[in-house]
Amino acid sequence: MISINAVSIAPNARDWLANSRHPRILHVFDRACNLINERREILSIVTQQIGNGPFNLVVEDDVLFSEHLNLQSLISVFPNQLNLGDLIINTGNAKLWSSRPDWETLHARRNEILNQLMSLPITNYQARGLDMGFATSAQPYSTTTSLPAKRLISALSTAHIPSLLTATQKLAGLGIGLTPAGDDFILGAVLATWIIHPLDIARGLAEEITNIASPLTTSLSAAWLKSAGRGEAGILWHQFFDALISANPVHVQEAMDKILAVGETSGADALAGFIGLFIGLGDLTSSKNN
Q1: Where do the structural domains in the chain lie, given as residue ranges?
Q2: What is the C-alpha separation between 164 and 213, in angstroms, rounded?
Q3: pTM of the entire predicted model
């Protein structure tokens, strides 16, 4: 048996460990292992290279999970300890990590953030018209991909729930992989919603969209969407938001580059949704002023 210490844990991961009775392994990768319990809730055990997330347990060792685990490996959950195949993960000293960004401050700075995003080169070729990243990766699955994406942006910009639900149903689960392109786009747009709208409105919109999308996609993608619906985000998005508040263009671009590097297109798809909603806000503001 190999003993490993956990260094940080999200509140959802802590609750998962306390309340799971019949977990099993869902996915095994080199730097991450996803577990699922009887309520189809996800726990991601990850190395520090991946870092904190809304349902992550981060371990200190640079372990290769694929060398120790498979889908049939046994799991035992004890107070302050998780046995996973031949791995013993000590969780008692893991530092609690808050997965909720400072939405109040971000909302107060939304106009400044809008101006920053509109000045970025990526805005001109990716989010404007939604014809890069997301649309490209989703093309094989729908010839009208950009239309529901644009309708989603329009509905979120105006907080029009009937249109929002229709667009969400068309996008959710669209694509292939553990987090399909349509879900990644939705996730980015939901995170932008928490900044653009006052918190009570954002909460209602985020819950509506993620409640519709979650049953239509994979277990892992649903976990990410549900987290966004609760106002939670992964560490790379926290760093991006901190950079936006700092208003340092170099830091903003560096943080965006890290998100763009996630997955084959997942990061790009999520950023397209995020930036697209800010463009929708800018277009809506301009039309009102004219």
Answers
A1: 2-96, 103-289
A2: 11
A3: 0.90
